[in-house]
Amino acid sequence: MTAVDERRMTELFENLEVPEGVKIELLRGNIVMMAGPDVVHNDIVEAVLDQFPRKKWRRLQTQDVALHQESSEPQPDLVLVERGTGPDSGRMMPPEVIKMVVEVVSKTSVDHDYVIKRSIYAASRLPLYLIIDPLVAHCVLLAGPTGTGENADYQSQSIYKFGDPVPLDLLDVVLDTSEFGTLPNVRPHRRP
């Protein structure tokens, strides 16, 4: 995609009227639309959010992230920023203030969350990327971003079953996953 095409796609994305209940993201120049989240998804996000004290953390749900070098404007399920950092207003959160992004996998987001966003977040140097997967009942913690573009990745990958604690050493938090629910009647995948 040329720079002109990328600018047009970004303009189109920013001016698109989206129906209520639809989530939209720009991922490497592609506009991706998804249905609103399941209750299981929302309960997981709430369980994570509750474990980060509000006095220390800005716990931003569905906050757009400014990753223009990737022609991307993802909207993670949860963005964690230390209180007192980042802009006080606006639609976009700059990557340099983000400590962790969280994505909760849905039936239609497996490839986006495990592949596309993994390289986008790594290329943007987001220190921690936590994938919470209610389809297969595990969490994948990615740390140590390296590389550029589509070849970017994380140096460290740890997998934790639901019910096991997830040590988030960089944030000085041990995440309790015992309340995380699973989606019924779904076909498991083979990621990560």
From TrEMBL:
Pfam families: Uma2. The keyword Nuclease applies. Residues 11-171 form the Putative restriction endonuclease domain. GO terms for molecular function: endonuclease activity. CDD domains: DUF820-like. InterPro entries: Nuclease_put_TT1808 (IPR012296), Restrct_endonuc-II-like (IPR011335), Uma2 (IPR008538). SUPFAM superfamilies: Restriction endonuclease-like (SSF52980). Keywords: Endonuclease, Hydrolase, Nuclease. This is Uma2 family endonuclease. The lineage of its organism: Bacteria, Bacillati, Actinomycetota, Actinomycetes, Kitasatosporales.
